[in-house]
Amino acid sequence: MDRKEMKKLCIRTAKIAVGSSAAIYVAEALNLEYAAAAGSIALLTIVTTKWETLKLSVLRVLTFLAAVALAWVTFVHISSEWTAYGVFIFIMVLLSELVGLKATISVNAVIGTHFLTTMDFGMKFIRNEFLLVLIGISVAIILNLYHDNHNQKKDLIRNMRWTEQQLQMILREMASYLFCQEMERNVWDDICNLEKQLHGFISDAYEYQNNTFQSHPGYYIDYFEMRMKQCNVLHNLHYEMKKIRTMPVQAEIIAQYILYLVDYVIEINIPQPQIERLNQIFREMEQEPLPVSRAEFESRAMLYHILMDLEEFLVFKKRFVNELDEGKLKRYWN
């Protein structure tokens, strides 16, 4: 576990510990029965993001009355406690799974044990249980309002720059290969490492989106997913290059284009000029004399596939740019 992950873990566990203790304190101050349950509810509600906590809190409230009604039906009408609780849990879990409310099961099960123990379905005790739920989720919401969004955004931007540098480095190495120069790095390992890192960056971008109330937070998700698609294209490029047995003279033209392209593998760039220049290379290669040997034919065919991969590489960036609305352009590209 790296330093950043350790910091996130410490903050999350601190929230859970403080929130659980605070919820119990408030419940005891209000002289509520089963005050400790408020701590458990807070613990179960504090999750990694603000939006998840808010959504879960609303579901806790909405399903509370249903759980109380189900407890009354089963506990009052079934004399055996263990049988009644088994039926209660069976129905509650079944319904929760069917309607997609699995996250509410744990808290409603705790509330159910209180009704099973007291067999009190009066308004005073129902109010007691509702306040336990309300205190637990309120503390969770308040604590989850704190999130280090500023530093997380800085990390995302830093990761964007790192991703661009890695793509540029990999493309330079591929150009060197087409120039028949010795490659200084293991490009395959670099591509695999970039792909692995991008998975983490996408996860961080989703976490940032779910922890901010600002507009257009999904920009970072779209950006890293676009780079992931480009990384997959590099896999194909590398594979195609390794299949070339003898390097045709046209390979230098493609290598020069790749070196030209490197400077434009940046966030703020509309790739239309690079696409137009690539199309010009396509047209020029169509005017080249036909290959005279099988080996030359196969190598030229590989070069054509490389050009198509480069086109796909640019198309992914073009689609990303086309999907940016005016708000995102103003906020991120101003």
Word description of this protein:
This protein is an all-alpha fold and 334 residues long. It contains 13 helices and no strands.
Produce a short descriptive summary.
This protein has 13 helices and no strands.
- Estimated helix fraction: over 70%
Q: What is the terminal-to-terminal distance? A: 36 Å
Strand content: under 5%
Order of helices and strands: HHHHHHHHHHHHH
Total beta strand runs: 0
Write the SSE topology:
Blueprint: H1 3-29, H2 36-45, H3 50-77, H4 81-98, H5 105-118, H6 123-144, H7 149-178, H8 187-209, H9 219-242, H10 251-262, H11 272-286, H12 294-322, H13 326-332
Task: Describe the structure using short key phrases.
334 residues, mainly alpha, 78% helix, 0% strand
